[in-house]
Amino acid sequence: MTGSFLDAMLFSVGVTLPSILLLVLGWYLRRSDQIDQRFCDQASKIVFNYSLPALLFFSIYRSDTDLLENLNLILAGVVTIMSLFLGAELVARRLVKAPRDHGVFVQGVFRANMMIIGLAFVSSAYGANGVAIAAIFGGVLTLLLNVLAVITLSKATGNKKFNPLLMARQIVTNPLIIGILLSLACKWLHVPIPSLIAEAGGYVSSLALPLALICAGATLDFRKIFSASDIAMWSSVGRLIVAPIVAVIVGLVFALSSMELGVMLLMTASPAAAASYVMAKAMGANDVAAANIIGITTVGAMPTMAVSLTLLRFFGLI
């Protein structure tokens, strides 16, 4: 049933505004010298290694959802990511000349910040039940995103091969993946979690999204955004405009439910992943362009996501 356009706008604002305010807070704290780069680096490590894995673990463990129940959603997500990856590869082969730019352009299009910005959006929209579904969805797709990123970034040095052992090591040691796999194992084996550990885990989990968003806001540099290269701008267009369109089309083809379609849009059309800069720098790709893509899409995703949600809500799709 379709609602009024005003109701649709209020829904989209309610989903995106909390994340925007935390990003603005981080930006203000950094510009007023109340926090510095060292704080952001240390806080990001805490979020990545402890808070976010704890959030994913307890969200999945306490939910009634499982992998098989969300198989259709996960398959839709895989099709969306692969469509964006292959499409970006075709465009890059025609338009991107420098090897150092190729992989950066491609990963900017397909690699979304699912586990921070995406989860924050889903949490605002659907609460704990949505986060549980998004955690399983994002956990599985994190594997695919990392594999595809290594493949495309390996072209920075003209080497079209990648090291499967190194990739496997990156996957099995990823704290987010470990947290998801542990939660699934504990659910399947019916392992009880003592209340004291669950309470402590809840405190650690509650740090994840606010602290991650504050740190993301603190790293925004509008001067770099406005001086971005053509590669960064066109890759950002793919992330901000093409990705939501592809996500919705694939979701409708797979006949996803209202919540599933909303979760997939919010997760797959989020800004470019923060880890894309780290990986680009480590693999000899154009890390400056990667940083610009993150900045452009982090700022631009808020209005484009609000518009997407408003339209889908207005037409009764979510």
TrEMBL record:
Pfam family, one: Mem_trans
UniProt keyword Transmembrane helix present: yes
Transmembrane segments: 6-30, 42-61, 73-92, 104-126, 132-151, 171-190, 202-220, 232-255, 261-280, 292-315
A GO biological process held by the record: transmembrane transport
Alphabetic keyword roster: Cell membrane, Membrane, Transmembrane, Transmembrane helix, Transport
Topology of the protein relative to the lipid bilayer: Multi-pass membrane protein
Gene Ontology cellular-component annotations: plasma membrane
Record keyword Transport present: yes
InterPro entries given in the database record: Mem_transp_PIN-like, Na+/solute_symporter_sf
Locations listed in the record: Cell membrane
Family per similarity comment: Belongs to the auxin efflux carrier (TC 2.A.69) family.
PANTHER family: AUXIN EFFLUX CARRIER FAMILY PROTEIN
Protein name in the entry: Malonate transporter
